[in-house]
Amino acid sequence: MKLKCTIFILLIITCWMYGQKKPLDHSVYDSWQNIGTRKISNDGKWIAYSVDVQEGNSNLFLYSVKNKTSKKFARGTKVDFTNDSRFAVFQIRPLYKDLKAVKDKKLKKSKLTKDSLAIVDFLNGQTEKIPNVKTFKIPEKAGSYVAYLLENLKDKSSDDSDKEDGEENKDEDKNAKPLQLVVRNLLDGKSTTYDNVIRYEFSKNGKQLAFITKKPEEKAKDKKTEKDADDEKSADKKDNDKSKPKKYSLQTVQLVDLQKGTVTKISEMEGDFSQLSFDEEGNQLAFVGTSSAQNDLVKLYQLYYFNCKTNKKEIITNENAQMKKDWVISENRLPLFSKNGKQLYFGVAPKPIAKDTTMIANDHAVLDIWNYKDDYLQTVQLKELKNDLKKSYAAVMQTEKPDFFRNIDGEDLDTLRLVNEGNAGFALGITSLNNRISSQWEGSTKKTYFLIDNKTGERTEIVKNLNGSVAVSPLGKFVVIFDREKGVWLSYNVKTKQTFPLSTGLPVSFVDEEFDMPDFPNSYGIASWTDNDESVIIKDRFDLWEFFLNSSKKPRNITNGYGRKHKITFDTYDLDKDIKSLNRKSPIYLSAFDNTTKANGIFKTSVHSNADPVKIQMENVWGYRSIQKAKNAEEYMVIKESYTDSPNIFSTSDFSKQQKLSDTNPQQKLYNWGTNELVHWTTPKGNTSTGVLYKPEDFNPNKKYPMIVYFYEKLSDNLNRYVAPAPTPSRLNISYFVSNGYLVFTPDISYTDGSPGESAMEYINSGVEKLKQNFWVDGTKIGIQGQSWGGYQVAYLIAHTNMYAAAWSGAPVVNMTSAYGGIRWTSGMNRQFQYEKSQSRLGKNLWEAPDLYIKNSPLFTIDKVNTPVVIMSNDKDGAVPWYQGIEMFTALRRLGKPAWLLNYNGDDHNLMKRQNRKDIQIREQQFFDYYLKGAKAPVWMTKGIPATQKGKDWGFELTDDKP
To answer: Which residues contact 873 (CB under 8 A, 6 or more apart)?
Structure first.
C-alpha cells in the first residue's frame, strides 16, 4: 500500500512538473547554444572549446583535464595552442551588438572597438590581454612565438563597412595598409617590433619569420585650400585619363632568424610581393612579386626562391628558357614545397590579354554567345569566370637546381594532385576533355587519369574515360581505382604499370546497396591505408576489408563480418593529419553506427587481427563519428547529443570513462521539450520502411494531437540528432512544433525509377495510415511540409490525395517538362541530369518518355487539389527555377484553390538571411495553427499584403476573418 501511494505521489509530481513547463516561442532562438570551435593541446592536458549562440556573444572555455576545471573568456575566438602546450592564444571580439550596429547602420569600422589578443600561460595561470590586434599567427609545429599586427588607430581613412565579418583579415589583401608587427617569444616575454608590415608568415618549425613591409604613403602636412583641392582632383583626373603609370610603394621582403635574432633583407623594389611560403624545415622560402605599375592592365610577376642556409636567391622570370611561349608566372597560386623540400610547385598561366580601354561601350553589343560545341554552358562559364581568370597551372622546380623547372600541368587538365605530399617524382593529372558536354545530362563526367613526370612532363595513362574515382597510395607506389559502371575496385602498380582487380569474387557488394537513382551506384569509399603502401582498407555497407595492393595475399575482412551480422557500420578515424597510414599491428579505434537502433559508438581492433572488434561503447546518441586526439597523448574529446540532450563535449582517455565538460542549454528544462521513437511499417506493395515519430514531453495517450509530416529522402538515421529550436531555411522547425503540442512524423522513402511521385505516396501515406491507427493521432488534422525535393513531393501528394488538412511546399518543382531545361543558377548547370540520372529519378530524357514527365508533374493534376497550401519560391533560388512556384500558385489561383506564395526577395533556394528565416517560422506556425488547431488566421492569410504596404505591414496580426 505504501509503495502504491509513493508511485501515485510521484506521478502527481511528474504531471505537476510537466504542467509548469512552457512551450517554446519564437523569442528563444537567438540565445540557443551549440558547441563551436574545439581543440586539444598536443600533451592532452588542455581542451579549448567555444559555446556559441545563434545570434549574440560566444564564450570560449579552456578546460584542464587534470584539474577538471574551466576558465571562461567572453567573446574568445580563433583559439590555438602553442606546440609545447604551454600557451593558449586567441582573439577577443567586440560585443555582438556593436558589430551588428556597424553592419546595420553601415558605419565605418574605424569607429568600432578592435579585437584584443589574449595569451594564457598555463604554467603560472596568468592571462595577458593586448588591445587593438588585427591578426595573429603562431608556428604550426614548433616554437613558442606569437606574431601579431596592431591596428593603426590614427588612420581613419579606410571604410570597410561593406565587407563581411572577417574579410578585413585576409593577409593577401592587395590594399593592405602597413601596420606594426610585434613578434614575441612567449617563454621569456621578449618582444621585437617591425614597422609598416603588410604580410607575414612563420615557418612551421618556428625557426624563421618572413614579412613584407610597405613604405607608407606620404600625406600632405599643410591644409589645402578648396581651390588647391579642386586643382589636385582635376590634375589626378587628367593623369588617370592619360593612364599614367602609378608605381607601387617601396616594398621589402625580410627574413628573421628567430633563434639568432638576425634580420636579412631578401628583396626590395617599388612593386608588390605576396604568397610567402616556407618549406617544412624553414630552410627555404618562396614568394612572388611584380614591378609592374599598379594600374597596368596586365601585371607580370616573378617567382623568388631563397635558401635560408646559403643566403642565395634565385629569381624565375617569364624569360626563363623553360617557360612556354606566351606563358607567365602566376600570382594566384601559393608556392608549395614538397615535404622533403626537394621540389617547389608554383603557378604559371597563359599571359592575360589586356582589355581594350579605348573601346567605347555604347558602340558595341554586350551579349553571351552559346555554342553547342562548348565544353560548358555559358551559365557555367560565367559562374566560373572570376576563378577562370585567375586560373593557374602547376610547374615544379627541383630546388637543388633552382634555375630549372618543368610545367607539368596543362589547359586540358581539370586537376593536378600532388603525390606523397609532393615528394614523389610525379603528379596525378586528371582530364575530362571530350567528355564535358555530356555532363549536362549525365551529371558526372568520365575522366582520364595520368601520371605526369615532374622532370620531363611525360604522361603515362592509368585509366581512360573512367566513370568513378582514383586515389593514390600515401607513398605513391599504387593507384587504387573505383570503376562505378562495373562496381569494382582495382589496383594499378606504378612501377610495373599493371592493373589488377581487388574486389571481384567476394560475397559482398562494395557499392551502395540502397542506391535508388537511375544511375550506377557509388562506392562506400576508402577508409584508410596501411604503412609502406602494403594495403588499402575499403568499406562495404557494414564491414572493413583489407586489400593487398601487390595482390600477394587474399583480401581480409578485418572486422570479421561482425558489422554485417549485427547491422553495424564501421569506419576508421583520421586522428593525426601528419599520419597518412595505419600500422597493421597497432590497435585502432573504429566508429560504429547501428543501422537498426541508430545507436552510435566506438570499437577497438587492429588491422591484422582475425577476431571480432571489441566494443568499447555503444549509446543512443549521435556522436563518435568524429573525435579528436591529442597529438602526443592518449587523450580524446568527442561531442555527443541526442534529441533530448543538447550537444556537449566530453574528454576521455579510453572512451569507457568520459568526463562531461560543457553544459549547453540548461534553459531547455524550463520548456516542454519532447521525445522521439522509431516507427516501422509495411507499405501496400510489401516494402518495409522506418520513420521517426516526435511527441511532446507532456504527451497524453488519452488526448488527440494534430500531426505534421516532414520528409526528405531518408531521415531515420537522425533519430539521435539534437534538433535545436532555430529559424530554419524553410524546413520544419521540429522542436518548436513538438513543444507546442504537435506530433511530427518523418518517414523514410525509397524510390522506383520513373515513379518518384508514386513512391512518395506509397511510403508517406502508408506510414501516416499506420500512425492513424493510434487513438492519439487526429486523422482529420494532419499537415505535410517539405522543402526542395520534399516541396515537390508535397505538391504531388496534394494533387493525388485529400487526406491532408494543410500543406507547406518550399521551393517545389511542379512542372518537370519546363524545369527539365532550366538552370541551377548557383552552379550554372542545366537541370537535365537531375531527371535522367539523379534525384528526380525519371531515368529517361524528355523525348524518350514525355509521359513520365507529365505523370510525375503535379501541375497536370493540380485541379484535383483541395488542400490549402503555402508555397515558398524565392527570386534568387539557385537550384530550382523560381517560376515553378509561380506556375503552381497561378494554376491554383486560376482554379480558385486556397494558396499563398512567399517570395523572399533576393534570397536563395534555402533561406540564407536570418531575418527571413525568423519571418517564415512565424508564418508557418500561424498557417498550421489555423488549419490544424483551429486558431485565428493572420491578416497575411485573410486579406494579403498589397505592394503599397510592403515593408510597412507584415500581416502577422490575428483576426476573426477566414482565409
So the answer is: 811, 812, 880, 882, 884, 885, 886, 888, 889, 901, 902, 903
Give the number of other Cβ atoms within 10 Å of residue 335's Cβ.
Answer: 23
d(CA 709, CA 809): 12
What residues contact 676, with CB distance under 8 A and at least 6 apart? 643, 692, 693, 694, 695, 719
Write out the DSSP string of 925-950: HHHHIIIII-PPEEHHHHT---GGGT
Per DSSP, the three-state class of 816 is helix
Q: Please give the DSSP secondary-structure letter assigned to residue 118.
A: E
Task: Find the distance separating the first CA and the last CA of the chain, reported in whole Å.
Answer: 57
Given a contact cutoff of 8 angstroms between Cβ atoms, the answer to whether 747 and 763 are in contact is yes
**Residue (of 101, 23, 28) closest to 727 by Cα position:** 28
Q: Residue written as cell 553571351?
A: 368
Nearest to 569 by CA among 600, 607, 609: 600
Neighbours of 72 (CB within 10 A): 10
The 10s digit of each residue's pLDDT in 744-763 is 999 999 999 999 999 999 99
**CA 368 to the chain's CA centroid:** 32
Question: Rounded distance, CA 836 to CA 820, Å?
Answer: 9
With cell 534553459, the residue in question is 667
- How confident is the model at residue 358, as a pLDDT? 83
CB contact at 8 A, 156 and 168? no
Rg (CA), the chain: 31
In order of 184, 304, 411, 809, the CA distances from 349 in angstroms are 39, 17, 9, 47
Q: How many helices (H) and strands (E) does the chain have?
A: 17, 56
Longest dimension (CA), the chain: 103
Measured CA to CA, the distance from residue 309 to residue 805 in angstroms comes to: 77
Phi, psi of 140, rounded to the nearest 5 degrees: -75, -40
Its pTM surpasses 0.90? yes
d(CA 338, CA 205): 15
State the pLDDT confidence band at 220, using cuts at 50, 70 and 90. Answer: low
Is the CB of residue 142 less than 8 Å from the CB of residue 83? Answer: yes
The three state secondary structure string of 240-277 is HHCCCCCCCCEEEEEEEECCCCEEEEEEEEECEEEEEE
Phi and psi at residue 929, to the nearest 5°: -60, -40
Q: Tell me how far apart the alpha carbons of residues 241 and 261 are, in angstroms, rounded to a whole number.
A: 48
Residue ranges of E strands in 535-687: 535-539, 544-548, 556-557, 568-572, 587-594, 600-606, 614-619, 627-629, 636-640, 648-652, 659-660, 674-682
Q: Give the cell for residue 123.
A: 604554467
**Cβ pair 587, 605 in contact under 8 A:** yes
DSSP 339-373: TTSSEEEEEEEEPPPPP-TTS-GGGS-------TT
Q: To which H or E segment does residue 904 belong? A: none
Residue 29's SS3 state is coil
Tell me the average pLDDT across 936-956.
97
Helix (H) or strand (E) holding 717: none
Sheet of 46-53, strand order: 33-40, 46-53, 59-64, 69-74
pLDDT tens per residue across span 135-160: 999 999 998 999 999 998 877 665 44
Segment 89-101, tens digit of pLDDT = 999 999 999 888 8
Single out the residue of 181, 185, 186 nearest to residue 211, CA to CA. Answer: 181
Q: Which of 193, 211, 306, 308 is nearest to 260 (CA)?
A: 308
Rounded to the nearest 10 degrees, how much is the dihedral formed by the CA atoms of 844, 845, 846, 847?
A: -100
For residue 508, the 8-state DSSP code is S
